[in-house]
Amino acid sequence: MSRSLLFVVALLSLFVTAPHAEAPRATRTVLLRRAISVPGYEEVMVETEIPVGGREGRHTHPGTMFARVEQGTVMLDDEGKQSAVYKAGDSYFVDAGNVHEGFNGGDVPVKILVTFVVKTGELLTTPAK
Q1: Cβ burial, residue 105 (10 Å; 0-12/13-18/19+)
Q2: Mean pLDDT of the chain
Q3: Is 85 a domain residue?
């Protein structure tokens, strides 16, 4: 290859970048789902795990979400509120229909125990538009 061609290839390589890898996503595991005393409603307990550097993706829930951080530290962006950081042992809630997202900027996976009371069979998580 000629020197000028090598120079052009080297110059172009400065402007071409590999596609960015998407941040790892959260996983959710239903631990308990049972009918409650209010007809047509159920309680659902979920464990959410967010890997290091991971995020949930902006989403909503049909009912109020009650959460307790079991491990790690999560940053929560909850629409209409100031971002907050919750560490192991902290509890928080997200109102029904509020767009929110958790992010793990720490060095250990985040584990959150979440409880919902929703209409029986209702989809628990909906991606935000």
Answers
A1: middle
A2: 87
A3: yes
Q: What's the CATH number where 35 sits?
A: 2.60.120.10
Q: Looking at residue 128, what DSSP letter applies?
A: -
Q: Evaluate whether residue 53 is within a structural domain.
A: yes
The DSSP line for 26-52 is PEEEEEEEEE-SSTTEEEEEEEEEE-T
As given in the structure block, the two tokens for residue 89 are 């042992």
Closest CA to 106 of 71, 70, 56: 71
| Region label for 72, one of left (φ > 0), alpha (ψ between -120 and 50) or beta (otherwise) | left
The least confident of 2-11, 91-100, 109-118 is 2-11
Residue 6 phi, psi dihedral angles, 5° rounding: -60, -40
Q: Is the pTM of this model over 0.70?
A: yes
Residue 12: strand, helix, or coil: helix
The residue written with tokens 């125990």 in the block is: 113
**Domain enclosing residue 35, as ranges:** 27-127
| Number of domains present in the structure of the chain | 1
Contact 95, 64 (CB under 8 A): yes
